[in-house]
Design goal:
Layout lengths: L2 H19 L17 E6 L2 H7 L6 H7 L2 E6 L17 H5 L4 H10 L20 E5 L23 H16 L5 E5 L10 H18 L7 E4 L1 H4 L6 E5 L2 E5 L17 H24 L32 E4 L13 E4 L6 E8 L7 E9 L4 E12 L6 E8 L5 E10 L2 E10 L9 E6 L4 E2 L15 E9 L6 E12 L34 H19 L1
Parallel strand pairs: 1-2, 1-3, 3-4, 4-5
Antiparallel strand pairs: 6-7, 8-19, 9-12, 10-11, 11-19, 12-18, 13-16, 13-19, 14-15, 14-18, 15-17
Length: 544
């Protein structure tokens, strides 16, 4: 091949990999333009937030006002029970997942006062605050534990407990699609003792939190205030139609002010990047569909500190509740029942049971002691084909008596006389032990079983004939345990995130299956190939 042809081919390959490696965080129609009308916003903060708002320091209050936001804020001593005093990460469950949540959020949504010095250039348009900004202060970057610790209801200021807190408050946000909730990550510390943990947690919050929970709405966003303050070259901003989240070379505070409060320079850098990005978040929220308030008052929630009675919120986000286990079975179905392999000594319970429900008085109890190398299900079937295409999948709340129980979410299609089987493999997570955990599974994740024709084909929601939770037991041991299920619903009609994860880990693939390459812990292929291609290009140019 002639050098010119080799050069053209290599340039084409470089372009291909460059495009593949480009960021893909933008959504169609993203805009950093201010709202076309005045929007009410409130900021929950303490001293760092106060500095951020001040005209003579960060200038956030004035910048927001100039972008058509009417700004109010809370500070120390604010609100019912002086809830404004408590803004550490573990306190967010008190705000958004406790018995006091209806009182606190009612006061928050209706607050129009100022608790910091900033200039308002627009008038109060009336009504409630539509946007809620909230952040914790820099001591919350001293998170103990390890960077990859999983969520845990115990631990206070640890990586694991911080993840649990944000997972716990997320269901409340789903009940308020009429509000936009924006989290500002806690600023960094000068001390590097826990800096790696802080970096890992904030990366999780920005990149993984909503994805792992398969959150379907556009009313929750995260701004990485922490990252911006770690390096002059660290950014979280909207540039050239693209959201950039560029990490710096350090994990500690680059803009000190004599202590760990960010300096005026760091605060102004953050404001410059935050306000256009807030506009992007606002337009995404507004463009995602109706944002009417819920038909009923804020739900009653139980104290988050009670591990045996986790927060109770309204049914999972969805376009239709299928069964809340408070009365009749799903309309047109045969009712919930348990099935297991013939000629085995399997024992099952599959029926609504009172007590310890997610919401209301009852939840489905699926208790099993399943025989070796067999199967069992707990579900219902329809007498005629049902159309569930109004949703994007199914959602429900799950609780378990132990972690690591493998089970399937089973759906049946075709027609009642010749059902076809589809499933999604999962296992119970540590968070689900004694706690209600939201599970959301999209249609394209529920695939035709391997032993039937057209294995791997996604379920067609236009022709549903049944639903169940299923078990396949090991060849050498029984499978025992209890699962509880409540508020089975269709997943909401808002666009779901692209990743195929849900908020509980999928079960490991069967031994005979070949693992997919390029997992999350492997280096990005394009990041390795592109430098090599550039070296090749240089060699070709020299050869010419």
């Amino acid at each position: 091949m002639k050098p010119t042809r080799r050069l053209a081919l290599l340039m084409g390959i470089i372009l291909l990999f460059t495009l593949a490696a480009a960021p893909a965080q933008a959504q169609a129609g993203d805009s950093s333009a201010p709202p076309d009308h005045i929007v009410k916003l409130i900021f929950i903060h303490h001293s760092t937030g106060e500095n951020l708002l001040r005209d003579d320091y960060g200038g956030l209050g004035l910048a927001l006002s100039q972008n058509n936001y009417f700004v109010s804020d809370t500070n120390y001593g604010w609100g019912p029970d002086a809830i404004g005093d408590r803004t550490d990460i573990p306190n967010w469950t008190e705000w958004f997942a406790s018995e006091g949540t209806p009182r606190y959020t009612s006061a928050l949504f209706n607050e129009s006062g100022q608790n910091a010095a900033y200039t308002r250039t627009v008038s109060d348009p009336g009504g409630e605050n539509e946007i809620i900004l909230f952040k914790s202060c820099f001591p919350n970057s001293a998170l103990e534990g390890n960077p990859n610790d999983p969520p845990n209801p115990e631990g206070e200021l640890t990586v694991s407990h911080a993840k649990w807190v944000y997972n716990t408050i997320l269901p409340y946000f789903a009940t308020r699609p009429d509000k936009l909730f924006v989290i500002l990550t806690a600023p960094p510390l000068s001390d590097g003792t826990y800096a790696a943990n802080a970096r890992a947690f904030n990366n999780w919050l920005v990149n993984d939190w909503l994805r792992e929970n398969n959150y379907p709405l556009n009313n929750v966003a995260v701004f990485d205030f922490y990252n911006i303050l770690t390096d002059p070259n660290a950014h979280h901003r909207f540039v050239n139609g693209q959201v950039e989240h560029i990490l710096g070379s350090r994990n500690t505070l680059r803009y000190p002010s004599g202590d760990d409060h960010p300096s005026e320079q760091g605060s102004r850098k953050a404001v410059e990047e935050f306000v256009p990005l807030l506009n992007v978040f606002y337009h995404r929220w507004q463009n995602s569909g109706p944002v009417a308030p819920p038909p009923a008052q804020n739900p009653t929630v139980a104290p988050a500190g009670d591990a045996t009675q986790p927060p109770v919120v309204a049914p999972a986000p969805g376009s239709g509740l299928l069964d809340d286990f408070e009365g009749a079975s799903p309309v047109g179905s045969t009712g919930w029942d348990g099935y297991f392999q013939d000629n085995t000594d399997t024992r099952l319970t599959c029926a609504p049971a009172s007590g310890d429900a997610h919401a209301g008085a009852s939840a489905l109890k699926f208790a099993f002691d399943a025989a070796v190398n067999s199967w069992a299900t707990c579900g219902f079937y329809f007498d005629s084909t049902q159309n569930w295409s109004a949703g994007q999948g199914v959602s429900f709340y799950l609780r378990a008596d132990k972690a690591g129980i493998p089970f399937d979410v089973d759906l049946y299609g075709g027609n009642p006389g010749a059902r076809t089987s589809y499933n999604f493999k999962m296992q119970t997570s540590p968070e689900s032990v004694g706690n209600w955990t939201l599970v959301q599974v999209r249609w394209d994740q529920i695939l035709r079983v391997e032993w039937e024709e057209n294995a791997g084909l996604p379920i067609n929601p236009d022709e549903i004939t049944g639903f169940s939770l299923g078990l396949s037991t090991p060849e050498n041991s029984r499978l025992t345990g209890t699962l509880w299920l409540d508020d089975l619903a269709l997943l909401g009609s808002a666009p779901a995130p692209a990743p195929t994860t849900v908020n509980v880990p999928a079960a490991p693939p069967p031994a005979q299956e070949t693992p997919t390459s390029g997992g999350p812990n492997l280096p990005c292929v394009s990041s390795l190939i592109l430098p090599l291609l550039l070296v090749g290009l240089a060699w070709l140019l020299r050869a010419r």
